[in-house]
Amino acid sequence: MAIVAVLILGFVVEPVLLGVAGDIGRFGPTVGAPNGVIGISFGDETPLEPAVAVLVLAGWVAVLFAAAAALLERRDLV
Q1: What does the alpha-carbon distance between residue 26 and residue 18 come to, in Å, rounded to a whole number?
Q2: Which of 61, 63, 34, 64 is nearest to 47 (CA)?
Q3: Is the pTM of this model over 0.90?
Q4: Structural domain tally of the chain?
Q5: What is the pLDDT of residue 61?
Q6: Most CB atoms closer than 10 Å: which of 2, 18, 67, 78?
């Protein structure tokens, strides 16, 4: 389920968001922020600065780890 969700996010949701609202799509976890780190731009949209892109990616990691910790807390895995 998680793999399918990541694939849908990377191949459908984020490219559509980049096409419709590029200013918001630049902060996405699979296309926008990683391209800011390596300096690739889409069309006339400018990518994020590398330092900002690294901070955005660290923020996404923190949010996903917090969500995983909350789910782990609710589930009894023992």
Answers
A1: 7
A2: 34
A3: no
A4: 1
A5: 92
A6: 18
Sign of CA dihedral 35, 47, 38, 28: negative
Enclosing domain of residue 56: 2-74
Which pLDDT tens digit goes with each residue over 40-65? 776 667 788 888 889 999 999 999 99
Percentage of the chain with pLDDT > 90? 15
Rounded Cα–Cα distance for residues 22 and 16 (Å): 9
Residues 6+ apart with CB under 8 A from 31: 10, 14, 15, 18, 25
In the block, tokens 């699979």 appear at 30
Contact between residue 68 and residue 45 where contact means Cβ atoms under 8 Å apart: no
For the chain, the first-to-last Cα distance in angstroms comes to 22
